[in-house]
Protein 1
Amino acid sequence: MKILVIGGGGREHALVWKIAQSPRVRELFCAPGNPGIAGLATLVPIAPDHIEGLLLFAKGKKIDLTVVGPEYPLSLGIVDRFEEAGLRIFGPHCAAAEIETSKVFSKLLMEKYKIPTAEAEVMALDEAYQKVLTMKMPVVLKVEGLAAGKGVVIARNKKEAIEGLDSFRLMGDAACRVILEKYLTGVEASFFVVTDGKVALALSSAQDYKRIYDHDQGPNTGGMGAISPSPCMTKSLESEVMTKIVAPILKGLELEGRPYSGVLYVGLMLTSLGPYVLEFNARWGDPEAQAVLPRLKNDWVDVMEAVLSHRLHKIQLHWKRGKSVCVVLASKGYPGVYKKGEVILGLDKTASPHAMVFHAGVARQGDRWMTDGGRVLGVTALGRDFSEARGRVYQAVDPIFFNGMYFRRDIGAL
Ligand SMILES: Nc1ncnc2c1ncn2[C@@H]1O[C@H](COP(=O)(O)OP(=O)(O)O)[C@@H](O)[C@H]1O
Ligand SMILES: [Mg+2]
C-alpha cells in the first residue's frame, strides 16, 4: 500500500512511526512532515491546508490511504473532498469534525443527547458582559471556533470574566457566540476511541500536562508531556464512558446526519458525580498520541482499513503491558516568545529499545538538527510501571541538548 500522512508535528511523527511498522506499507509519504519523519517517509512539501494540492498529489501517486493528523484540514473538508474524488481517507467529514471546531455545536449536541457535561448557556459575546456579572464564580468562558488553545478562560472573579470576554473580542468577531459554563472540579483525563460511526473501540487513555512548569504552574501550553494510560481510568470507568458518552454522541451525530468516522478524542473531567465531557476533538491529541501509539500492539493500518470498510467489529485491540511516559523538550520562552535556530546535539545518542524520540519543531541544515518551534521534541519511554518508564524517559532525554532547552521534570511522577 501507499500511504500519505498529513501534518508535521510530533503527533504525525508518532503516526508515521507506527504506520511504518506495518508490513502492508510499501511506500509512505508525509506532507509536509519534518526532519525526524524524513527517516521513515518521503516528505512532500505541501501544506496541510492546501487541500487541492494534496488531492492532486494523492491522485498522481495513486495513494491508497490518506491519514489526517491535525484538525485544521478536517475543518476545511479534506475528507469530503478526497471522498468526492474517489480516494480513501481516514478521518471525519467536516460536518462531523464540527464536534471539535464548533464548541457551541458540540455543547448543544451534548445537551440534546443528554451526555454529561457542564451546565452552560450560549449567547452573543455582547450579551455575555451583562450575564457574567450575575453568575457564580469561578465561571468558564469558551469562545466559538478553533482558537488554538486560547479560546477558554477560567475566571475566578468578575474582573477576570470581563477581561476574558475582552480577550475574545480582540480575537476578532464581536458578534461571535460564547459559552458560559459551570466550573467543574476533578481530575482530567483524555480518552480515545476509533470508530466507523456505529462500532467504537476504546483506544486507551492518557493524561496530559498542559502547564509549562512543574506541579502544574504557569500558563497553558500545547502540552508539555503525557502519560498513558491515565492512572485514574479504571475498567469500570472506561465502560461508563463508552455507554454514557461515546455511544450516545455517535448515535446523536448519526441522527443529525453527520456520522463520525476516525479517531475521537474525549476530554473528560472525572468528577465526584462521574465522568463529564469538557470537549471532543476530532483527531489524536498531541502529545497524547506519542504516549498512546507506542503502547498499541495492533497494526494501525489494519485498524484504519477496518474503519473504512465497516469491519471494526472484527478487530480486537491489544496493548503492551505497562505504561508510557512522554516528555516534551521545548524552547526557552515557550508558550511566549522563543528563539529558533539553536543546534540540537545528542540526537544520535538516544537509541534505546524502550525509548523513542519524536520530532516536532525541528529543522535540518546540512547534517545539523536545529530547533524550529516552541515544542521541539517529544521523548517517549515504556516501562512496567510509571516509575520505570519515567526513569527511562529522563535517561533518554539526558544526552539531548540545545541552548535554552526546557522540559518538565515531573512527568509521570504520581
Ligand atoms: N467546565 C469546566 N470546568 C473546569 N475546567 C474546565 C472546564 N472546561 C474547560 N476547563 C479547563 O480548560 C481546559 C481547556 O478547555 P477545553 O474545553 O479542553 O478547550 P481547548 O482544549 O479547546 O482549549 C481544559 O483542559 C480544562 O482544564
Ligand atoms: Mg482541550
Protein 2
Amino acid sequence: MNTSWHELKREFYKRRDNAILSRDQRKEEVYRKVPEIKVLDQQITELGLSYTREAIKQQLAPDSAGFFEEKISRLIERKKKLLVDNGFPADYLEVEYTCKNCNDTGFVLDKDGIPGTTPCHCYRQLLVERFYDISNLNSDGQTGFEFFNENYYPDSPAEGAGTDVSPRTQAIRVKEKCIDFVNNFEDKDCPNLFFTGPTGVGKTFLSKCIALEILKKGHTVLYLPAPAMFDIIYRSKYQSDSIMQDNSHQDILNTELLIIDDLGTESPSAAKYTELLTLLNYRSARNISTPCKTILSTNLEPKDLHKMYSERVVSRILGEYDILYLFGDDIRLVKRFMKDGF
Ligand SMILES: [Zn+2]
C-alpha cells in the first residue's frame, strides 16, 4: 500500500493545524482593530476556568451552573455584535475546518462532537485520491461548470452533420443534463451518463466538472482512463498477492462515482470485456442501495460500440445510460485561435 494510515493521519493533523493557525491570525487582526474583543475573550476564558474550578471542588450552588452559562453566553453575544459592528462576519473567530462533518479529524463526530470510529467521507475520498493521484481534478483551477464556455462551440449546424441542431445548442443541453445528474446523484433512478463525440469537444472537461461537484457533495469519486482501469482489474485478478491492487480493485467496484474516460482506447481482449460487463453489472446492482454511478466517455459512436464490445455490454450501456452527444470543433484549437485574435 502506498498510503499508510499514518500518512493520512498526518494530512488531517495538517488540515487542523492550518485551520487553527488561520483562526489565530484572524484573531490578531481583530484584536488590533477592536481591543475590546480581546478583553471579552479574556473574561470568557476566566469565567470558564472558574466554572471548572468550582465544579471540581464541587462547591457549585445548584443554580450557579446556569449563572455561569448565562454570563458566558452574554459575553459571546456582545463579542459577535462587536465583530459585526466593525465589519467582520459574526463567526469570523470560529475555526473553519475544511470538512465540517468531522472537523478534519477524518472520523464522523458523535453528538457530543467527539470523533467516533466511522470514517468520514473526506477520509474515504483522501484515500481514493492518494491511491490514484486523481487530485488534479481540484488543482488545475480551470475545471468547474463556471468555466464552461458555450462560445467554443459553433453556433450554426455543420453541413452534412445530419442534424440541424448547432453544436452550441447541443453543448448547452448536455451541460444542463450534467447539472441534473449532479442534482439527482443520490436518486437510484437517475441514469448513468455516456459521453460520446470526437476528440476535444469537452467530454473530459464536463465529466470532471461533474466529478468536482460530486466531490463537493461528499461522495467518493474515481476518475480513470480506460487503459489504466483495465490494467488495475487485470492485475488484481492475476496478481492477487498484492493488497494494494486488491484495494484499488475494490475502489473501482465501490466508489460512488466512477468515471471511465477514453473508453475504447484500451487494448482489445475478450477477457477485458467480460470484466467490463461484470463491473457495470455489479455497480448497477449496488446503485439500488447506495449511490454507485458510472460515467463513460468515448470517441466511439453508440452505433459503433458493438464493433468493439459484446452485445451484452452494448445493450447494458444503451439501456441504462443517458447518451450525451457532443460535437463541434476541437476546443483546444478554438481556444488557441481566440487567444491569437483570429
Ligand atoms: Zn470529514
